[in-house]
Write a structure and sequence with these properties.
Radius of gyration of chain A: 21 Å
Mean pLDDT of chain A: 83
Number of strands of chain A: 2
Structural class of chain B: mainly alpha
Distance between the termini of chain B: 32 Å
Number of strands of chain B: 2
Low-confidence stretches of chain B: 340-347
Distance between the termini of chain A: 46 Å
Number of domains of chain A: 2
CATH class of chain B: Mainly Alpha
Shape of chain A: globular
Order of helices and strands of chain A: HHHHHHEEHHHHHHH
CATH architecture of chain B: Orthogonal Bundle
Oligomer: heterodimer
Number of helices of chain A: 13
Largest sheet of chain A: 2 strands, antiparallel
Radius of gyration of chain B: 21 Å
Strand content of chain B: under 5%
Strand order of the largest sheet of chain A: 1-2
Strand content of chain A: under 5%
Shape of chain B: globular
Helix content of chain B: over 70%
Amino acid sequence: MSNDQLEKSLLAHMYGGLKSPGGITISLTIVGALLATVDKGSYIIVTAIVTGGMWALMAMGLALVFGVMNIPNFAHGDFFMIGALVAYFVFTPLSNYVSQHSSPLWVALVPFLAIFMAAGAGAVAGILSELFVFRPLRKRSKEQWVMNSFVLTVGLSTVLINGHQVFLGTDFRGIVSYWPYPSIPFFGFYISFDRFLIFLLALAIMLGFWGFMKFSSKGRAIRAVSQDETGALLVGVHLNTIQTLTLALGSGLAALAGASLLFMFPAYPTVGLGPLYNSFFVIVVVGLGNVGGAVAGGFIVALLQVLTTVYVGEGWGYVVPSVVIVAILLFKPSGIFGSEVRGVLDQ
Amino acid sequence: MMGETRENRKTNIIHRISDLLCVTPIGLFGVILLAALPFIPPFNQEYMIRWLIVGIFVAAQAVAFDFTSGYINIVNFGFCAFVGVGAYTSAILAVKLGLSPWIGMFAGILPAALVGFLTGVLTLRLRGIFAAIMAWFIGLALMGLTTKMVFLTEGPLGLNCPALMRTKSNMPYFYIILIMFLITYIVLKRVVRSPMGIAFKAIGQNMEAARTSGINPTRYRIINFTLSCAFAGWLGGFYAHYYGILMPDMMHTSKTVEVLVVVYIGGRSTLWGGAFAAIPFICATEMIRSSFSDIPGVNLILYGLFLMAIMIYYPGGIAQLYSTLLERLQSPIVRRLGIGKLGSYSG
């Protein structure tokens, strides 16, 4: 193929991609973000991108669990809560200690320690819920699995939220910031160091997650199970291990998001509800179980919410996105990146 | 032989009555017992009657909820938002226009049915979990709207509305909600027993097969949603004028979860299962809540645990327990009382 032809086919491909619903939505999002930025200043686009990174992580976990295990995880927000809680309990004493024996290296590292320990705790919680909640159901019945497991996660969520309330009370446990560094100037306004670093962390985790799914044998096995469970079983994938790993990864991502956003969302029993709604918005917009799409969706939903807060007002943050998403679903019932293939999710 | 015919005639009368009310003779006995309950000693205190009222209110909601989730197999996750629409309509009419609550209660049906109709239309192209999530988003949007439309609803401050009657006693309310519950049950049960109910079940089990057999899923799904939400709105009217204060919280997902738990414990696709489970369940949880009033949330943990246990180990709920018990008890007495043939009544 000559250079010219290649260029033509590439252009055609891009044009085709732009004409697809996903392409249209992404272009509209970018245009909307640019227009709003021109109108109200660059902080809109920056806020959308920074919070979008975390919603993307969170939604990725939800989409992963949905895609591989077909569980619409209503308790996903509660893993967010667990993450925030663990990060608080790890970070507060450690940062007190470190600030007394001041050593700059530790001041920089302790937040990471707290965040990763929280992610680990979330993963453990995920493994436990797989072992004690989902596996018993899977053993007994796979009939109407999607709906039944959804109701099961509703029960799990109720237990976790109220467990927090009973054992730890309804206090807000929050921190002011992770890193005691000054804000960073950015196109005429300041962005807090925490937000900046958390966004970088989100990007790094996304990249690492992508690499894991793409190149490691476990990641390949997870993708195989999400495509065809029986087929994966036939070629020797250990289903139980993969399902446990998937839930651990999914809840670990939620807990990581919760820990990272501790300075925005202090830990309290129902802290996970908002993030849960957001991640459901995301995965419904991009199509349930679409992990890659969840990244784009995270930014789209974040922008939608920022625009709503700026133009409509505080408190409408769930009304307008729900209406927009309902409208999207009307035209693309399986999400903007979803395929029209009807499968297990339609039960 | 002659004696037997007289016996037959006697049972026939019971049968005819119970057929009219769509309950088995045992169910008829249960309803009579329930009506007499406020006079029987441990239940004749005011706080007990209050619990019973809440129990019957949840029972009636459970019937309307099961009408959708158990038959066309779409879990209406925004159910309590529809109850809230009815409640707020009635309350606003009473407060702003001075309409009598007795008329307002029925006026609440209209907007709730309308919103239900719209939800039915919007979820037409969606199935299973997609439709449930869509209904959930609509519920979230409705709750957000109620919170923000302060000029009408007073928002989170709560809307004070007049009571149905000027009495401190709970007794009249008890009979009103009992009658409302019976009407809800009988109307919906009659619909379910008619050919339309078979169509609902066919759609719920396999939409393609139903369509192939000449059933128009569009029509039946919209009818189902509209009816279920109309009753939800009516019950909401009672809620408004019984409690006298309305907050947007009543439309929250956790309230829907409460109804859902009851329906799943009682047994899906029976209508009576949820209603039967509601009263003892609500009384038990209220009792736990009042005896552990220093640690709020204990009753909700039990909710969640109970829901999970039921989903995993006994998905048929009480209804299944009842029918298996009857199968074992194939004694002549059972057969003569006509309770063995549950199938003809349960639809």
